[in-house]
Design goal:
The structure holds two protein chains of two kinds. Chain A is of the alpha+beta class. Chain A contains four helices and five strands, in the order βαβαβαββα. Chain A has one domain: Winged helix-like DNA-binding domain superfamily/Winged helix DNA-binding domain (Arc Repressor Mutant, subunit A, Orthogonal Bundle). In chain A, 51% of the residues lie in helices and 18% in strands. Chain A is elongated and about 60 Å long. The mean pLDDT of chain A is 83. Chain B folds into five domains: 71 residues, no CATH class; 191 residues, no CATH class; 209 residues, no CATH class; 173 residues, no CATH class; 207 residues, no CATH class. Chain B starts with a helix and ends with a helix. The longest helix of chain B is centred in the middle third of the chain and has 39 residues. The chains are: A alpha+beta, B alpha+beta. At the A-B interface, α2, α3 and β5 of A face α2 and α4 of B.
Chain lengths: 113, 883
């Protein structure tokens, strides 16, 4: 547990979009998928997922529909809309730019006099 | 559109809340079930799996709340929640709520009233179409707009900048409609008046430029809507009726639109009469070029003409007039002015006064906000445990701040609504008010949409302003610390900005209280002073005989008959007659010269004396004491030697001393030698605050005047006496309008300024007092609640009640004393200024000083009552248990 990193603010939405981009998922499924694709390195409180999902639905990036889960429970499934797909592309690109910049800044060697 | 959509969505989600809720509930349950399934699969039993799944999920209610927020549907609901909660909290402390609402109601009401007056006087133009391009022709050299009629005609016909130039003048005339004669106020206007102002008649028709064919050629009147409504009861049949003005027949043509009240603010006429008929209403000559009796010349600028171009154009007409009529038109330089307040003549003082008032009202509102802010801060400190608890339970700071703001804005809205309602009532009263029965002065200050908008804006702004004071306090609240240790009391010794502000407020309050008391005392005293005439048991009748067609040699016999008729009324002791009376409606000044002056130039004058033309009985009837010599008889007529009675100041100015003045002569401007036959006491003639002025009284038979005041001395009941006077005068001439009032009433005009100053100071004093009360009580409440624990310990250690009070309220009282003393000193100094306005206003009056001290002490008592009660009720046991 102690190895898990706190989420940076604003990154939860990106992770949700990425998780759902691989196929429709219910809420709990999104959580599992994030754990799976991040190698369980991120700490997400389970309930905190839902305000994020609702926010993305309201922005028209996700759409939701009720269905049945693999073990026959009723659940709400989320999938990406066209706008969601576009947003994921943009956010991914901008995240990569940021990560590269921060990474190279941190890697820079001090110039010794 | 976007805003509307989002609003609709929010409202829709608000009403679909239960459905959304059920769905959300189902989704979260499904999540927990799915998680529990997984846990079960890893070997935990079902009950334990579900318990662990719920714990892992976290604060379910909080996430539900956040989901609602994410959906955007929470706004209205939490608003209603906040409102309900705010109402409940405020109802629990009615003292605080009433004080806060009252303070705001007063502050917002004051602002609404002042802004409404400013709006009516300065921001709103005259009520005519396209008022923005309407300008009056101003003469900067003499600072007025008067022109002679022939000059007006030249200006009208020779300028190229105005779209029709109009002239108008106001006069008082006697109206005879067949029954009760009355005096009316008339605008004499040029024929093009209504057409150039682009007005349409409400009823009938207007007169036009084409109706003018020389002097007295156009005997028509147009009624104002108000006069038609009040005196003809909206009778459409008046058109075509013939009425008599000053005994001359005029035909009613029509009625002006209801929103039109003439072409200057304040002075609303009853009638409009063509200016070419001027000769029938006055004795002036319409065509004398040197006689500048036309009150104002004005018009719309043509489209595209700038004021500067128009001024240049007018000045070129002016130089033509200077060369063509050098004798009458010495210097003709013009500028343009806004007509509504008679250019800068009324405009500058009104603007300055209103700006000052607006500033003051703004300051009052700011001070009110500051005080309410500290009251709110005190409450927030009291509620720090509640706030901390809510924070600990997972409420966001944003939510708590919203709650506090809801409370503040709720208070400000209620206060603002009450203030606005009060101001609307007051303003409509002010609009209907006629300060002088004798004059058609109206202040149309009814609020319009602008006023309401400003009031609402101020209300909201002040709610947010004082609501914002405790924000920092809440943001810094550390729930852990507060719950653990209770609020931390720190008794600061440093003087804070808030305290300084409070001292300033108290000082200003004390200044206002001091000066309003000085003003009240001065005003009350001013009616019991010696003015050189008496006020008690005297009735005044004023009229002008020209209104009933008397002129020249027909005037004196009629005046004699009037005196005799009133003298015959039972219970009348004496009747005097004069062309004008002291402290009446303005006075006639004459330059006088000593007898040995031969070069009668104004610079050689011995004095500028107020002149009254009086009948023999006048001095006795008015109660003006004759110090030596004799008064007049009816034999001092035009065939007798010219004589005068003068006052002591006159003898001092002209002869050097009152002794041996009797029998000596002085000269008038026209060279007439006049013998002094009597000396009377000095008096007040123009205003109550003036220095002694020279005055002279001359026999009315030696210098005729149709202006007539009758001074009736009698100790009969004023109402009965007025009825008897009315009957007697109507028997003499049923067509003569006149105005009867007591001598006290005639002083209304003179006392208007002092009375208004006193009322204004009183109102401001009350506001200042209220502000100080909320300020002090806010601060006292804060200091008590901050030091609650310390006080509790003191009580537990055996402190006396007085010691507790001293500890709790010593500082507020010190501030009060400091502010009061500073204010009292400043107030005494300010009263010297007040003495210019209010007669005999002096702060060196033990009664005033005692009253101020008493008022301030009372104010302090009132303000600290509730906090003091609270400090005394502290129960150390409970307090120590709780904290």
């Amino acid at each position: 547990m102690t190895d898990q990193a706190q989420l940076l603010p604003g990154t939860l939405d990106l992770l949700i979009l990425r998780a759902v981009s691989l196929g429709p998922l219910h809420g709990y499924g999104v959580l599992l998928r994030i754990g799976q694709i991040s190698g369980n390195a991120l700490l997400i409180e389970q309930g905190a997922l839902y305000p994020g999902l609702f926010r993305l639905v309201r922005q028209g990036l996700l759409k939701a529909s009720w269905g049945t889960s693999e073990n026959n429970r009723r659940a709400k499934f989320y999938e990406l809309t066209a706008a969601g797909r576009k947003r994921l592309r943009e956010e991914t690109a901008s995240w990569n730019r940021l990560a590269t910049a921060i990474g190279s800044a941190l890697a820079a060697q001090p110039e010794e006099a | 559109m976007k805003l509307l959509d989002s609003l609709r969505l929010r409202i829709a989600t608000f009403f679909q809340r239960s459905q959304v809720n059920a769905e959300l509930e189902a989704e979260l349950s499904s999540h927990i079930q799915l998680r529990a399934d997984d846990l079960e699969r890893s070997g935990v039993d079902r009950a334990e799996a579900e318990r662990r799944a719920r714990i892992e999920f976290g604060g379910r209610e909080r996430y539900k709340e956040e989901c609602h927020e994410a959906l955007g549907g929470n706004f209205l609901e939490s608003l209603i929640q906040d409102l309900r909660y705010a109402v409940r909290v405020l109802r629990k402390s009615p003292g605080f709520t009433i004080a806060a609402v009252l303070t705001l109601a007063l502050a917002i009401g004051a602002n609404a009233i002042v802004f409404s007056v400013m709006n009516a006087f300065i921001l709103r133009p005259l009520n005519v179409p396209q008022a923005q391009s309407l300008y009056a022709i101003w003469r900067p050299d003499v600072s007025d707009a008067h022109e002679s009629y022939p000059d007006y005609l030249d200006l009208r016909d020779r300028n190229r900048s105005f779209d029709g130039l109009i002239a108008w003048n106001m006069v008082e005339a006697g109206l005879d409609t067949g029954q009760d004669p009355s005096n009316v106020w008339v605008y004499e206007t040029s024929g093009n008046y209504f057409d150039a102002l682009r007005l349409q008649p409400y009823l009938g028709s207007f007169f036009h430029a084409s109706d003018e064919h020389g002097p007295n050629s156009d005997p028509y009147v147009v009624l104002t809507h108000a006069y038609w409504h009040n005196h003809f009861r909206d009778d459409p049949g008046v058109v075509g009726r013939v009425v008599k003005l000053n005994k001359h027949p005029f035909t009613i043509l029509g009625v002006a639109p209801p929103e039109f009240h003439g072409t200057i603010l304040f002075f609303s006429p009853d009638f409009f009469v063509p200016i070419v008929n001027h000769g029938q209403l006055t004795l002036d000559d319409l065509n004398a070029r040197g006689s500048r009796w036309v009150f104002m010349v004005m018009g719309h600028l043509k489209p595209g003409v700038t004021p500067a171009q128009a001024t240049a154009d007018l000045n070129s007409v002016g130089s033509y007039l200077e060369t063509a009529y050098p004798k009458d038109d010495g210097k003709m330089r013009f500028s343009l002015a806004r007509p509504s307040l008679y250019g800068d003549y009324l405009g500058r003082p009104v603007r300055a006064f209103m700006t000052g008032l607006m500033l003051l009202a703004g300051l009052i509102l700011l001070a009110a906000c500051a005080n309410l802010g500290s009251l709110f801060a005190a409450r927030a400190a009291d509620r720090s445990r509640e706030v901390a608890l809510r924070l600990a339970l997972g409420s966001t700071r944003k939510r708590i701040l919203r709650q506090l703001f809801t409370e503040a804005v709720l208070i400000s809205l209620v206060g603002g609504a009450i203030g606005l309602c009060g101001s609307v009532v007051l303003l409509s009263g002010l609009s209907a008010w006629q300060p002088f029965a004798r004059w058609p002065i109206h202040l149309a200050v009814n609020p319009d949409a602008n006023v309401y908008a400003v009031a609402v804006l101020l209300t909201l702004a002040s709610g947010f302003l004082f609501g914002a004071v405790p924000v920092r306090q809440v943001l810094r609240t550390n729930p852990y610390e507060v719950v653990k240790s209770g609020s931390i009391g720190r008794a600061g010794r440093r003087i804070t900005v808030r305290e300084l502000l409070l001292v300033v407020q108290i000082a200003i309050c004390a200044v206002l209280v001091t000066s309003s008391m000085v003003a009240v005392r001065g005003l009350a005293g001013s009616l019991h002073n010696d003015f050189g005439f008496e006020l008690q048991n005297i009735m005044m009748v004023d009229t002008d005989l020209s209104m009933a067609g008397y002129s020249g040699e027909k005037v004196p016999p009629m005046q004699r008959r009037m005196v005799d008729a009133l003298q015959a009324i039972p219970g009348v002791e004496s009747v005097g007659l004069a062309d004008n009376v002291p402290l009446g409606e303005g006075s006639n000044d004459s330059t006088v010269f000593s007898d040995n002056t031969s070069d009668l130039r104004p610079s050689n004058a011995a004095a500028d004396a107020t002149l009254f033309k009086i009948s023999p009985e006048y001095l006795h009837a008015a109660g003006t004491a004759l110090l030596s010599g004799r008064t007049f008889t009816w034999h001092d007529d035009k065939d007798a030697p010219r004589v005068a009675v003068v006052n002591r100041e006159f003898t001092r100015k002209v002869f050097g001393s009152p002794t041996k003045a009797i029998g000596r002569y002085f000269k008038m401007l026209d060279g007439t030698r006049i013998e002094v036959v009597g000396i009377v006491e000095d008096g007040k003639y123009g205003s109550l605050t003036e220095d002694p002025q020279p005055a002279m009284f001359r026999p009315i038979l030696q210098s005729l005047s149709s202006s007539t005041w009758l001074v009736v001395r009698s100790n009969r009941d004023p109402q009965q006496l007025a009825a008897a006077i009315k009957g007697a005068l109507q028997k003499l001439d049923p067509g003569l309008p006149f105005f009867i009032q007591t001598r006290y009433k005639t002083l209304d005009l003179t006392l208007f300024g002092p009375r208004m100053a006193t009322i204004a100071l009183g109102v401001l004093g009350v506001m200042g007092a209220l502000l100080s009360i909320t300020g002090i009580s806010g601060m006292a409440a804060y200091s008590v609640s901050k030091r609650l624990r310390e006080l509790g310990i003191r009580i537990a250690l055996g402190a006396q009640r007085s010691e507790v009070l001293r500890a709790a309220l010593g500082r507020p009282f010190k501030l009060l004393a400091f502010g009061s003393i500073a204010g009292l000193i400043l107030g005494v100094l300010a009263s010297r200024v007040l003495a210019f306005v209010v007669y005999q206003a002096t702060p060196r009056d033990p009664l005033v000083l005692a009253a101020v001290v008493l008022a301030m002490a009372l104010l302090g008592l009132l303000a600290t009552w509730i906090p003091a009660q609270r400090a005394l009720r502290i129960d150390p046991l409970r307090l120590l248990r709780e904290e």
